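Bumping with the actual sequence this time:
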Amino acid sequence: MGESHHLATTVPPELWERVVVVRWPALLGSAPASDQEAAANSEAVVTGLALEYLLQLHFAPPLNSRRRHRDGVWRPRNLTGSKSRGALAALDLPGLWTLVRAAWLELAECPAPADGTSVVTSSAGRVVFPSAIHQGPSPLA
């Protein structure tokens, strides 16, 4: 969910502790039939935007909770009043959202692997630990 290019241009990768990737299509089969129908009647990108919107609404990440206006002043964003495609589609996905939120919370709590690998995977997604990528053995060794 979300756009990797947005993440990459918002926060320098050197600051990332972990990147959580939820594969929502893998969870769709466990969602209520009404959610499955709503997702089938929408573009996959819109379903992804809906789930991204719900994550932002639920967790209120600091970098998404305000916006810089033309005058250069940062102002709070009112996500609850959004009329975006994602916000509108989110209304039809409560069951899928419950599954996605649970998967995100589980993945977000995964400890970094002790063996120095940089990725932990599950059936619902993966967690990447960028700092482990740079701590591994030297490619020149």
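The tokens above came from a reply further down the thread. The chain is about 45% helix and 15% strand.
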